[in-house]
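Repro:
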Amino acid sequence: MKIRRAVTDDMIDFFELRNAEEVRKLAFNTDIIDLKTHKTWFTNQLNDPKSIMLVGEDRNTMVGQVRFTCLEGNSAEIHTAIFPEFFGQGSGQKIIRMGCQYLFANTTVEEVIAHILMTNTRSKHAFLKAGFGNETIVAFKGTECYRMVLRRKDDGDEPDKNC
C-alpha cells in the first residue's frame, strides 16, 4: 500500500466512499451527501492550508482516505474511511499509520487526535494497532465516543513546515 496527496481527480472516489452505506453507519454524520455539496467541500479541503488529504492505494486502486485538520497548538485531528470491500484486511491501521508518518515528516504537528464512535470497534482496533493510546471517553459532536492520541516520536529531525 502507498499513501499520496489527494488531487482534484479523486473527488468522485471520495464522494463514493463518503456515501457508501457501510461507511456512513460508522460515521458521526450518517446523512447521504449530494454531489454539489461534496464538490464544494472537497475543493475547499484541497485548498485549505490547515487540511491535509491523503489517499491510500493498493495496486492503483483507492483503498481509503485519511485526512488531517490542523488545530491550534501543534495538534491535528484525524478522519479516515476505508472502502467496505477492504474491511477486515488491516487496511485501516496501515492507512492510519502511513498517514501519520506522512504528517509528522512534513509538518510540525506533535500529536494526532482521533474521535471514534463507541460502536465502531473495527476503527478503535485499527487506531490501537497504528500506535494510538491515551484512550478516554468524551463527548464529540454531541456523541459519546473514544478519544485517542498519537504523539510524534522525538527523532531530533524537525521539519520546518507548519501545518
